[in-house]
Amino acid sequence: MIRALLCLLLTLIAAPVLAQAPGDRHVAMELVPETARPAAGGTVTLAFVSTPEPGWHGYWKNGGDAGVETTLKWSLPQGVTAGPLQYPVPSRLLVSGLMNYVYERPWVQFVDVAVPAGLAPGSKLPVQVQADYLVCTVEICVPEKASLRTELTVGDGAIEPATRARFDGWRRTFPKPLGSEARFAVADKRFRMAVPFPADAALGEAYFFPLQQGAIDFAAPQKVWRSGDRLLIETAAAAVGTPPGVIEGVLATGEGQGFALTAKPGPVAVAAEQASGDAAWSGALLAFGGAVLGGLLLNIMPCVFPILSLKALSLARSGADARTARGEALAYTAGVVLVCLGLGAAILALRAGGSAVGWAFQLQDPRVIVVLLALTVAIALNLSGLFEVPTPQFVGHGGSGGAFATGALAAFVATPCTGPFMGAALGAALVLPPAAALAVFAGLGLGLALPFLLLGFVPALRNRLPKPGAWMERFRRILAIPMWLTALALAWLLGEMAGNSAITWGLGAALLVGFALWFAGARQRRGRGVALAMSAAAALTIGGALTVPRAAPAQETVAGADEPFTEAKLASLRAEGRPVFAYFTADWCLTCKVNEAGAINRSAVRDEFASKKVAVLVGDWTDGDAELGRFIERHNRAGVPLYLWYAPGEASPRVLPQVLTPATLTALAGERRG
C-alpha cells in the first residue's frame, strides 16, 4: 500500500512537467458512435477507441496497486444523458511487486447515451466529452486529457453493417453477466470464492479481477480449480482494510473473455485435494477429447465414408508393406489435420475481426458450394469408373501425395456435419487461448483421421481387410451412390441459398466438369494424356464458382406453428409463462436435418408440444446471420445444431444433446404435468 501511494504521489508531482500537448499523447483516443442517427427515445452506444504507443498502457476501472481509472466530463444537449463508462476485460502487469490491471494493446470502452423521446427527426445533438486518464510505462506515468466530440442526428437508429460488425468485435472483449451469485469468505488471511460455473463450460486461464480495494492482495498468485458446477478461487486476503459486504469484479476465462460477477459473504467449502487441479488445462484437454471423438464419428457421414473406404481398400489392393502403409497413414492424417487447423485459424481470425462465424462458415458462401458440388460430382464419376486420376494419385489410389490430398478432401467435405461431442468441444475453442483453441481443431482432424491412421500402424487391422478381388470394383460403384446423394444435397442447398439462377449455374458448371472428365476418361482408355482435360475441369470449377449469381432468394416463412427465432419473441413467450423449444439449424447442416426429420417434426412430438402449448422457435443460420451467430456463441457453441429448452420458472435454458430422439422432446414437454 505504501508503494502504491508513493507511486501515485510521484505521478501527481510529475503531472505539470510530463503533461503533453494533445498531438503528443501516448494514447490516441477516438470517439465513435454505433449509429450517427439514433432514434428518439432510444439509446446509442459511444465507443472510446484507445490506441497506446508501444510500451505504454492504460488502466481498468480498478487499476490495481498503482493505477487510476478514467474520468469523463460531458457536455450534452438538454435531455440527453450518458451512462457509466464500461470497461473490457483487462490484463495483468506486475511491475516491481505491484500488480497493475491494464490494457497494453488497443482497447475500447463503451458509454450508452440515452436520447429523449419526442425529438423531431433531423434534430442535431452535439456531444462533447473530456476524458482524463493515466498512462504509464514500466518506468514512468503521465496523466493525459483528450477532448472528443461527435454530432448525432435524430433518425431511425439504423446501424451500418460495417459499423455493426466493428462494434460486435469490440463487444466480445467485454465481460458477460454471469447470471448467478457467487459467495466469498475470508479466514486465516486467505480469500476464497465459489463461483457457479457449469462443469461442461469451457475455461481458459481463469483469473479474478476485483473492482474494490480491501478484498484481496492484488499481487498474490491465485489458485483456480473446479469442483462440479463451481469454480473455486483462493488467494491471499488484503493485508489492510475490511472486505466489503459485496464484492464485484470480473472473472476472466481467457484472453479478452470473461464474466461480470457479484459475490456476497457465505460459506465456501474447499477440499485440499481439489486445490491441485489445473482448470485451464483440464478444460482444454476435455475439449480436445471431445473434438477427437466428434471427428471420429464424422467418418460415418455419407460424404466421408466412401473416401475412407476407398483409402482402406487401396491398402488391401496394393498389398503395401508396413513402411508404405505407415507413410500413407501419416500423409492422410497430415492432410486432414492441416485442413482442420486452417479452418480453425480462419474462424478465430474472422471472429477476432468481429465476424460471428462458426464451424462450416465457408458453406455460407455460394461460391464454395459450387466448388464442392463440382468436386463431389468428380469423385462420384471417378468411383463410377468414368475416369482415373493420374499422378499425383488421388482417391482410392496409393502414394503419400494422394493420401495427403485425400485426407484434405475428407476434412473439407466433412465440414457441414456436427455431431455428439463436437458442439461443446468447438464451442470451448472460442473461449480458449489461441494455441489451445487450435489444439482443439487439430483434435477434430486427428479423430477424423484416426481409422486410417490405425490401419496404417496396426498390422492386425490391415490383415482383417477383405482380400482383393472383382468385388472391389462393384463395391467402388456402390460407394458412388452416397457421393451422388451428396451432390444432390449440395445442389439443393445452392438453390435454397441463392435461388434458381444459382442452382442452374451450379448444375451447368458440374455438367461441363463432368464432360471434361468423360473426355479425360476416353483418352485414358486409348492410352493418351489427360493433363489438358483435367486442367479444363479445374478451370471450369473455378470459373463456375467465381461467376455464380449470389442474389439471395425471397425470405421463406417458417412452416406450421413454428416461428422464426428472435430474442424479443423469446422474451415475450417466456413472460407469458410458456415453455419454449428453440432450435438453430442450417440447410447445409446434415445433423440438423436428420434431427428435424427423425425427432423434431415427428407427429408424436408435435402433438405433445401442441397439447402442452410449447412454443417452437426456429433460428435459420444458413446465411450466417450475425445476430443468430452471437446468440449461438453465448451458449458455448461454434455452430449448429443448437437445441435449447426453456422451462417456465427456470432462469437459464437447458442445452439439449446434438442428437435428438422423439422421447427426449416428449419427456421435456411432459414435465409440465401436475
Structural features, described:
With 674 residues, the chain is α+β, with helices and mostly antiparallel strands. The chain folds into 4 domains: 2-169, Thiol:disulfide interchange protein DsbD, N-terminal domain (Immunoglobulin-like, Sandwich); 182-277, Immunoglobulin-like; 282-547, no CATH class; 563-670, Glutaredoxin (3-Layer(aba) Sandwich). It is 41% helix and 22% strand. Strands 11, 12, 13, 14, 15, 16, 17 and 18 form an 8-stranded mixed β-sheet that branches. β15 (223-227) and β16 form a beta hairpin. α8 crosses α9 and α12 (500-525) runs antiparallel to α13. It starts with a helix and ends with a helix.
Secondary structure: elements and pairs:
Layout: H1 2-18, E1 27-33, E2 43-52, E3 58-64, E4 71-75, E5 81-82, E6 91-95, E7 98-103, E8 107-114, E9 124-136, E10 141-153, H2 161-171, E11 176-177, E12 182-187, E13 190-196, E14 207-210, E15 223-227, E16 230-236, E17 247-254, E18 257-265, H3 279-297, H4 305-318, H5 322-352, H6 366-383, H7 400-413, H8 422-429, H9 434-457, H10 459-463, H11 471-498, H12 500-525, H13 531-547, E19 563-564, H14 567-575, E20 580-585, H15 590-600, H16 603-611, E21 615-620, H17 626-633, E22 642-646, E23 654-655, H18 662-670
Parallel strand pairs: 11-18, 12-18, 19-21, 20-21
Antiparallel strand pairs: 1-2, 2-8, 3-7, 4-9, 5-8, 6-7, 9-10, 12-13, 13-16, 14-17, 15-16, 17-18, 20-22, 22-23
Helix pairs in contact: 3-8, 3-9, 4-11, 5-7, 5-9, 6-11, 6-12, 6-13, 8-9, 11-12, 12-13, 16-18
